[in-house]
Write a structure and sequence with these properties.
7 helices; 133 residues; 57% helix; elongated; mainly alpha
Length: 133
């Protein structure tokens, strides 16, 4: 499918292959421990340009894989001594460091008061009010 010329500025990378060459240059010239999304953006142009190509048919897979390679470099960094920076970066990739637990069933609050007499129930409510203050 050919893109129609809608006017405006011409593409910096007219073909997906042109973009792939630029991405490959970034990864070849940049040491593994220095790979970043902003570093990639600087080579390609701007962060907005990266976002633009990420949504453009034929180019999106190139950007997705480039970002995945960068994410992998942060994950690899977790195995070395100071993981704080990589943890922060991975959170920006959507990783979470909290555990989410789903509960099923319910809590029966009536069981605690069901067997109480009226006087016991009044005392229970009175104790709750006192504890609140």
């Amino acid at each position: 499918m050919e893109d129609k010329d809608l006017g405006g500025r011409p593409l910096k990378f007219p073909t997906p292959n042109d973009l792939q060459i630029a991405v490959d240059v970034y990864f070849k010239q940049t040491p593994f421990e220095k790979w970043t999304v902003t570093g990639l953006a600087l080579i390609l142009g701007t962060k907005q340009l990266v976002q633009h190509y990420e949504k453009r048919e034929g180019y999106e897979e190139i950007i997705r894989i480039a970002k995945l390679r960068i994410e992998n470099s942060y994950e690899t960094d977790l195995r070395i001594k100071h993981p704080t920076g990589p943890i922060f970066a991975l959170k920006n990739f959507g990783w979470k460091d909290k555990q989410e637990v789903e509960h099923s069933g319910g809590v029966d609050v009536t069981s605690r008061t069901a067997a109480m007499t009226k006087e016991e129930l009044e005392q229970f409510v009175s104790n709750l009010r006192e504890a609140k203050h």
